[in-house]
Amino acid sequence: MTEFNIPFNRPAVTGKELALINDSIQSSKISGDGEFSKKCEKWLENFLGCNRALLTSSCTHALEMAAILIDVKPGDEIIMPSYTFVSTANAFVMRGANVVFVDINPKTMNIDVNSIEKAITSKTRAIVPVHYAGVSCDMEKIMEIADRNNLYVIEDSAQGIMSRYQGQALGTFGHMGAYSFHETKNLTSGGEGGALIINDNDLVRRAEIIREKGTNRSEFYRGFVDKYSWVDIGSSYLMNEISAAYLWGNLIEAEEITRFRLEKWNRYFNQLSEIKDKIELPFIPNECSHNAHMFFIKVKNIEVRTKLIKYLKRNKILAPFHYIPLHSSENGLKEGRFDGKDQYTTSESNKLIRLPLFYKISDTEIDWVVKVVKDFFHRL
User: Fold this and answer.
1) pLDDT at residue number 264
2) Alpha helices in the chain (DSSP H)
3) Which CATH class is domain 17-251?
4) Contact criterion met (CB below 8 Å) for 269 and 295
5) Residue range 35-59, pLDDT digits in tens
6) Structure confidence at residue 218 (pLDDT)
7) Candidates 3.10.150.10, 3.40.1010.20, 3.90.1150.10, 3.40.50.150; correct CATH number of 254-379?
8) Which end of the chain, N or C, is more open, meaning fewer C-beta atoms within 10 Å of its C-beta?
9) Burial of 179 (0-12, 13-18, 19+ CB in 10 A)
């Protein structure tokens, strides 16, 4: 078998993007909220079944908007897993909140629903579940806990586009959801990009104002007011039209991209099942349909992981680990606390390796990755 130089990711390109970008450049409005933004937002609203989808310049900004929309104030507490990207916490810390980290379910790497209720205090404002690898959290239980305790739920669905829980799209269970269209995601806007999914209709009008720097400019363009002015706090959260055009080229092929990724995910799973006595494979609960965002394996410990990553790199394969748990990071120690026992978060994060998976990866490339992984364990 021939060796390959296999990156961890290549951004999805369907072949339609350049023509669409050229169309956006020729339009009279490329700063945002133009023709392609509206097409993408309508597609998301129809596909997800949400009240409103607003394109943003990143998933980080979508989460920041959500924190503003629920009026997070200094001293409020926000419950979330420690095993997540920094943006999940930053969005709320920037409003003065204290982050309360809880443990994860070792099978899915998602938030442990049994740890949530124990972490709730009189200061708790919201629960922020993270759908890791596009596999849903137990949203039925989370929503039941939130409803009983009168809490907001904001789904960090950065990795969750095209995934479902009990047949319902991720990001549509809570009051709001946040998607990422970063270049590493299944569907991309070419670089940075995101969307705020709003399921509570009472939040829609203010969300549009916050996204437009705190002005009611959207209402002005729709003819609802004869002039626009500064009416609330906000920032510049709009996705530009060139990025929206790229994203549109991905969205119109979303089903094909997802089908392709699932096929390659299953190829990894079937071949690596031959050494399941040496590694742990991903677990997909019966109630979840996932999007093949990521294929990861877990090994015995951090020492084995370090050796395997180096071995893959020597064979020209880039396979990184993922998050350093936030509660053990420098700023996490200052801005939050871990509630309960860290039974799984640190130990499981030390075992995880992500293998290359992207749109148009070839069977031959996947077979080479599998061969190198198997060779490593035979040598070990």
Assistant:
1) 98
2) 17-26, 35-48, 59-69, 86-93, 113-119, 139-149, 204-211, 217-221, 241-251, 254-272, 302-314, 330-335, 345-349, 363-379
3) alpha beta
4) yes
5) 999 999 999 999 999 999 999 999 9
6) 82
7) 3.90.1150.10
8) N
9) buried
